[in-house]
Amino acid sequence: xxxxxxxxxxxxxxxxxxxxxxxxxxxxxxxxxxxxxxxxxxxxxxxxxxxxxxxxxxxxxxxxxxxxxxxxxxxxxxxxxxxxxxxxxxxxxxxxxxxxxxxxxxxxxxxxxxxxxxxxxxxxxxxxxxxxxxxxxxxxxxxxxxxxxxxxxxxxxxxxxxxxxxxxxxxxxxxxxxxxxxxxxxxx
Length: 188
Description:
- The chain is an alpha/beta fold.
- The termini are far apart.
- It has 2 domains: about 5-155, Secreted effector protein pipB2 fold, CATH 3.30.2450; about 160-188, no CATH class.
- Strands 1-7-6-5-4-3-2 form a 7-stranded mixed β-sheet.
- The chain has helices spanning about 45-65, 120-125, 140-155, and strands spanning about 5-10, 15-20, 25-35, 35-45, 85-100, 105-110, 135-140.
- The longest helix is centred in the first third of the chain and has 21 residues, at about 45-65.
């Protein structure tokens, strides 16, 4: 069964995973461009971190499995989000693959299923997984390395984590449950 893709970019000219906003109030996006078409998708911080790690792991595997291929070079400039951003959907699942024939990495994103509305209940319609919006982006290994490097920097630029409990520390401070109320709130 062939899948339908809401966005199907055969060779992206731009791809990035980054965030907008202040730490603690940021929104993360996955954005790709092919010619004049742009797809901006909302992703979670953890999805961005996992994607960046997976891309680097796949690149390492590709260099071992296909030593005859030109290695992906480090990009001179990291990509940035292009504004205005009009998100198409919130990502529920990400998949990563490699098209050996074209020497392109493939990133597939599927929308997060939404809760049925009252209108859906009245009509008896429920959004099936096959009906969810999807995006597929083909990118070079260099583009994906740049995406990964930018994504890691974006994730790391957030709020610092508490060394005791691992929760984020706000600029105003942090009450750590591990101190059991016997220490002053931590602030960085």
